[in-house]
Amino acid sequence: MRRDPEAPQQAGPRSGILWPAAAPVGKAARVRMALIAGFAIGVSTLHYFTPADLVHWHLLYERLFYLPVVYSALLYGWQGGLLGAALASICYFPHATAARSGLPGLGFDRYLEMGLFFAAGLVIGVLADRERRHRWASEETAEQLKRVYAELQKNFERMKRAERLYAIGQLSAGLAHEIRNPLASIAGAAGILLRSPHRDPAQTEVVEIIDRESRRLNRLLTNFLNFAKPPAPQYRVISLEPVLDSVIGLASHAGTSGPVTFRKEIFGKKGTLECDPEQLKQVLLNLVINAVQAMPEGGEILLAARIEGQRAIMEVSDQGSGVSPEEMDKIFDPFYTTKENGTGLGLSVAHQIVLQLGGMLTARRNPGRGMTFTVIIPVQAEKVL
Q1: Residue whose C-alpha is closest to residue 113's, from 105, 125, 103
Q2: Residues 140-151: what's their mean pLDDT?
């Protein structure tokens, strides 16, 4: 909603809506006031330079005094209308008194004309104020409806995402259980062949491939199951700092081609929270490893944490390549990945775990480069956001 940038804000009547004040202050307002005053003075000057016998011209000039009154009322409301009427009356007063010295008409009629200036300014100003309030109320209502519609759209997208996640989770759970049994048999048979003392070197290489790929598939199935149904959290009262220290210690061994430094910041009081430390550590470690992998040339990773009221907030910021705006809505979708060897389940599993802890996981692009992932969970387990 666009409003006059020069207009100061003041409380509207009987509501919490902020209304711009009736009279703006600034260069544009001063120019308008100068034009109004100049017009009224100009009309008064015409009275002096017009011969007294040109009655029709003098009557026309009297009508012209209403223009600054109406203009002031339309611009600044009833207050502006009264000020415009006062200005017009001051400029008109010499002409009203001059009627007794030869100009046509009675002096009383001219004084009555000045009273009409004030009446016109007051009525038009009140109507202008009423119309302005209605317009601002309509614009404010339109803005509120726009915000509500945007929120509904976001909620609708969250619902669709939740439905997709539920469907994929159920499918993943069933598929993982069905595949795991024959996979265990394959892995067991490969292990027996590897332990056999009489084996051909070529066969050994093939069996090693089978064993290695079986283990990789087993890890993938474990991720499927964690995504479909994360383990029930084992709540304990913990401090944030030891969890961050443990995550940094584990992530420091992640492979990277460039130097990566870790920085930890704890803001505010070092309070405690009730959660599953292993699950929280799993979420943060996943985010930190993603950050390491996003910086092949190295950089700094910041782990920040603070407790605000009834919620704990943890952030992981990197200086990597980031995620394009078109991909921001997909990063928590299962099986979506930008890595060559990624499964696309890491962030999905982390998202599911945070939801199960009663919190939320969000992502945003940094102003310069890289990403910041924010984990928000309640301080007490029973208080879900």
Answers
A1: 105
A2: 88
